Predict the structure of Spermatogenesis-defective protein 39 homolog.
Amino acid sequence: MDKLTQVHTASHCQLKESKRAVNSLRDFVDDEDDDDLERVSWSGEPVGSISWSIKETAGNSGSSQEGREQLKSRNSFSTYAQLPKPTSTYSLSSFFRGRTRPGSFQSLSDALSDVPAKSYAPELGRPKGEYRDYSNDWSPSDTVWRLRKGKVCSLERFRSLQDKLRLLEEAVSVHDGNVITAVLIFLKRTLSKETLFRELEVRQVALRHLIHFLKEIGDQKLLLDLFRFLDRTEELALSHYREHLNIQDPEKRKEFLKTCIGLPFSAEDSAHIQDHYTLLERQIIIEANDRHLESAGQTEIFRKHPRKASILNMPLVTTLFYSCFYHYTEAEGTFSSPVNLKKTFKIPDKQYVLTALAARAKLRAWHDVDALFTTKNWLGYTKKRAPIGFHRVVEILHKNSAPVQILQEYVNLVEDVDTKLNLATKFKCHDVVIDTCRDLKDRQQLLAYRSKVDKGSAEEEKIDAILNSSQIRWKN
């Protein structure tokens, strides 16, 4: 899956696709779940959980803002005093969001509250080694060791560029992602942007950590500047595109997406950007029209089935489902027509048929379902054809409580005999089972099925008539 698809699908697609499309709203990931915390390895590559990826892609701007506000209030590295343990997979989510769970980095007030109040009375018997904790004369290796142990220390003594770079190299050498990120925060605050970028360009491990850190705190401006400096044009474009997640107003989001169309994406990604813009443009028009029709109360479909969600910012498949549900019979020339959507976005036949079937079956519009699978050849003969397979058609129809007569018609169209018998037995399509056993001349299976139908029923009488027929030469 390409990068844009991950961004676009994850951001809009917390919905159950297709079958539950309009009736479902976004299920946000529980923000208090420890499994949701993203972790970073020493190499700087994210190894977070799927649930965090969903939150990251959905653009949790609130958390990012909170992280930025906390970071702005910190003037020295002493804020990050309480490191939980010296491993290479610390939780950066707790670190930058100021959470106070066990094992997470603490806020400034928490860190200070853990430091005992200074005593002005002389202390007796204090080991001389403890005075070293309050000394600023530490080498880079000593400083990194203290950071790994979670001890209070300040990085302010590293004033020259050479000293700061030695500290960074020492942090990288111990393969501790948390320490690397902590040093990078110090460098970000004390070095000019150009100097920081230039030095990190030749230090790829540290560079990856900084990129990940900037993404996590939502510092899009610095991230864009960094990609521009590194001449990573596609990443620059993707990072710019991500900003649409923070725009709530549909019209403003549409205009922003329009500015993304000319950015240096790959050919495939450029097509996705264009489709995203076109889809949102359509959704705005459809939403305004349907809201008016629904409030007027004169359209039967909206009276019987009131909308449970806005169509704005829905995925393409959800939009198609919505269109098949509310606008199925509209002419192809209208923006809300399912056929128009299919042609505009080049939706494959299988996806279109599957989505249309789910929508029309939910409305119990069996005539539309029949027409969906009926084709004519050049001689005018009709034939049933299903690009998704009739076994899937049967499953969807049964899920939407289709009558047995309709189920039997489509079960009969399943080509594989074993699949047909299994579906017919599962959904109690008695006539299909009886006729198939008769055609197979399988007397034993027919006798076995006789015990499953009601006594004295029409099905039992039909089985008995077949079993007593002298015109059938049974195989067993």
